[in-house]
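[Q] Does anyone have a clean structure-token version of this?
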Amino acid sequence: MPRSVLILNQSTSIRPLPIAIIDGIRTTMDGKLPGAMSYYIEHVDLYRFNSSLYKNSLQGHLSVKYRDKPIGVIIAIGPGGLDLALELHGSLWPTAPVVFAAVATDTLVHKLPPGVTGTFIELKLANTIEVARAIVPNLRQIAIVGDRFEEQLYYRRFADQLPEFSRTVEFIELMGLPLREVRRRVAALPNSGVVYYIGTNSDPGATYTSAAAVLPSIVEVANRPIIVDSETLLGSGAVGGFMLRPYQIGQDAGRLALRILNGENPSDIPTTTGSNSKAIFDWRQLQRWGVSENRLPPQSEIRFREPSIWDLYRAQILVAFAAVLAQAAVISWLLSERRRRRVAEATTRETMSDLVHVNRMATAGELSASIAHEINQPLAGMVSNANAGIRWLAGATPDLGRVESSLKQIVAAGHHASEVIAGIRGLIKRGTEERAPVQINELIHNAIALERRDIERHHVLLTLDLDESLPDLIGDRVQLLQVILNLIRNAIEAMSPDRVQTLRIRSELDESRDILVSVEDSGTGIDQQNIGRVFEPLFTTKPQGLGIGLSICRSIIESHDGRLWVTSTVGRGSTFFIKLPRYMAGDGWQQSRKRS
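[A] Here you go.
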């Protein structure tokens, strides 16, 4: 059997209902059979062209068009499409099975011949009456809007059903009227009425693209709710009703066509009435007309429902509620912990201050030889210059010029000794932090002067690469000097006398225009397993180390809004980096900043 389907649509290609039916057919059939599937679709527009002359002409046209195109299954959409398919079946495609869709049982005039099957739809005026009474409990009038019954392909039999319900409901027939007259009439309906829209495709003055295109114009002026029975009309202002679902209708037809293409005999497939009609309503229109959902038919589907705050934010509300409960518990606990934490913080600050002081004292002790050397030099110079001055005065002719020069050198040496002593006193004294503009290069030179003896004793090759144009920074001079001293001493101790001992100190501005100081040694390096722990309190790799030096250094640098970190390669040495914010004149005191 050919893998080809001819779809005969009684309507046009621009109407929403047949478009949805065809979409359902193709979605159901695509990819379900081996090989390529061919679809041929004919939109014959029987709403506007339904004469015998047109049908004869159409038959001739199709016979030429599909002369060389074998057809596996014909799918007829609508009662008009089925009538046309049956006429063409005998003359053009006598062996092609026919599957019908969107055909109501009461529109079937003749008995179906062999080779024809399909799924009927249900269009009952009784369903419309049921919905109307649910929407308007005191229902008295139903205004029917659309083309005349005799011009309809789906509602022709409704004319025979009206007398049955006319005993309890008044039917206001607004069919076949010009749209402007319909708009005038539906704007003045009684409060006990509803509008039943069956579709307007044309009126005496105009032809419309589809019934769906006309509905908004009626909704715009209607003073009563509007009932419809096609899913394609929902969402344009109608309340709803028992809806034909065109996509479901197409799926039913597609499944029957697949069964036939798979080899089943269509005569063995009985016709059925599908589950393609369902009560569906527009939530927005129910709210507009004050219709309670409790009055609707059982198992009604509500669409376009605006979600409530609970629907939109259910998870967030539950989380917020849980968070409030948790916060209530946490707050009560925090209040009790607040005082203890403050005491603990004060104790920690005091302990850190003690550790910093202990570290300074240890550093001063280790530097005692260098301190003595630094003081002995100016004292020896003072003695030597004083003796020289005495000799110049004792001469037959005192050389006052040289005496004056000797006295000046004595004064300079005294000042130098005083500065050394003041620096040592500042290093070891305990007191509050005093921050002021500091030149980092000056601190580096002071630290080197204090460590000069150890540098020379260990035969360390010192290289200075200092940017003399660096701006000042704001900090505690003593604390920053302590950090630099610790890093220099660590570098000296990390280097082995068995190899060239190189110490390089560099200062510069980095990419963020902050001050960057690096202390690089040629020592044994730090094991990568330990490099992340070198700044932890009480961690040390030295046999006699306390494990507090680098921890204190990092605390001091971070208290200056800076960073201290290290990079190292085992066997090739380590480099410690200090990054501090600069101070620019006119900017005021440096504000605290977070740095990554």
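[Q] Thanks! Anything notable?
[A] The chain has three domains: 4-121, 125-244+277-303, 433-596.
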